[in-house]
Design goal:
By secondary structure, this protein is an alpha+beta fold. It has a domain at 87-243 and 293-321. It has helices spanning 7-18, 25-36, 72-82, 103-108, 110-129, 182-198, 206-212, 228-235, 277-285, 304-309, 311-317, 328-332, and strands at 44-49, 55-59, 91-97, 136-144, 150-159, 161-163, 169-171, 219-222, 249-252, 256-263, 269-276, 296-300, 346-352. A 5-stranded antiparallel beta sheet has the order 8-3-5-4-12, sandwiched between helices. Helix 5 (110-129) packs across helix 6 (182-198). 32% of the residues are buried.
């Protein structure tokens, strides 16, 4: 269901001001793509039903990974690809968070700060698993808090065990009840991250390092998932999220934007926040990642090299019969069924550019399609 208000609406209303707000070229390019997503500016295509002959005019998606309208289909495709990698073992959800003392560096040197976050998290897992054993991890970077403030953290899905030197699966010492002690993980994670930061090319004042040790760092670990199928479903909540969905925008006027958010400092109470257009765009732009930055990463026996060569053997040893774990309703979104008759399939019969569709199709009301590429 299409939202009443969109991020693109704010951008279109204030675009002349946006270009003068000091954003860098990559941020402006991203915001322009979101502004023009599924509009005539990007051209479109015309689909026809092979059963009833229904014609549908659609505008092209911007395909940008930061766009609120371009994530659903890609998320489903990514999850479907992951289902073949599941193991019949406990899984854990672990979150590694950066302290706000690093926010200034994250704004000016995001690649270095976020790369270090991924590296420190993985090195922490390796430290607890043991250097001679191979753990597995899928990590997904999020940089935002509910109010669009900067809050860098990675969500990690980690199987509760490891592959030993003989490539035999071993459950963790807790036998699947928990992963590792979170307090110990937090201390190791902080030490790993600071060491990586000190070894980087960044010039960092000593007072920042001092601030990093004044507070405990946060590592959150959730108990195991119920089944491999629930892992697939759970992953979908995090893989292709963006800073704010269009559904959280409650109102837009000439000057302000009102959004809903959960205040986790107040027991998750739902609240509203009103921002000027400029402040809304500034906060949204904080979460535009550097060009070609990889925000979903796979490690250990879930890395691409290991998965291709050895994961199938491990699955066989664990008697894992790969089968579909996607809910039926999710699978149906992968097919373009005719919205008119409900039985035929829609096929593209014509594409058009920014000049618009041929005159004979102009009377057709454009429908915005759901396909996108990250």
């Amino acid at each position: 269901m299409r939202s009443e208000y969109e991020v693109a609406d704010v951008l279109r209303q204030s675009w002349n001001d946006v270009v003068s707000w000091g954003l860098n070229g990559w941020q402006l390019r991203t915001l322009r793509a979101i502004k023009e997503c599924r509009t005539l500016a990007l051209g479109g295509h015309i689909d026809g039903c092979d059963s009833c002959g229904h014609i549908q005019v659609s505008y092209n998606s911007c395909r940008n990974r930061h766009c609120p309208k371009c994530q659903g289909h890609k998320r489903v495709e990514w999850i479907e690809a992951r289902e073949s990698e599941l193991l019949p073992v406990p899984y854990f959800h672990v979150v590694f968070t950066l302290p706000d003392a690093l926010n200034g560096l994250a704004i000016h040197k995001p690649k270095i700060i976020y790369d270090a976050l991924f590296k420190a998290a993985w090195e922490t897992i390796v430290a607890f698993t043991g250097q001679n054993n191979k753990a597995g991890m899928i990590s997904i970077l999020h940089t935002w808090g509910q109010n669009l403030s900067l809050h860098p953290h990675i969500h990690c899905i980690i199987p509760g065990g490891f592959v030993n030197q003989n490539e035999v699966w071993k459950l963790s010492k807790s036998k699947g009840k928990f992963l590792f002690p979170v307090k110990a993980m937090s201390k190791v994670y902080r030490a790993k991250y600071v060491a990586i930061l000190r070894a980087s090319d960044l010039v960092i004042e000593q007072e920042i390092f001092d601030a990093l040790f004044r507070k405990d760092w946060v590592v959150y670990a959730k108990r195991p998932f119920g089944s491999p199928a629930s892992v697939v479903e759970y992953l979908g909540r995090y893989t292709h999220k963006i800073a704010i969905s269009n559904h959280r925008i409650l109102a837009i006027d000439d000057q302000t934007v009102t959004i809903s958010y959960k205040d986790y400092k107040d027991e998750g109470q739902k609240k509203t926040l009103t921002l000027t257009h400029g402040e809304f765009v500034r906060r949204f732009a904080l979460h535009i990642l550097p060009k070609r930055f990889v925000r979903i990463r796979h490690y250990g026996f879930l890395s691409s090299t290991w998965k291709r060569s050895k994961l199938p053997d491990l699955q066989d040893k664990l008697n894992n019969k790969t089968r579909s774990c996607l809910p039926e309703k999710t699978k149906k979104t992968l097919h373009k069924t005719c919205p008119c008759c409900g039985t035929g399939q829609m096929f593209t019969i014509l594409t058009f550019d920014g000049r618009g569709p041929p005159d004979q199709f102009v009377k057709s009301e454009p429908h915005h399609h759901n396909s996108c590429v990250a």
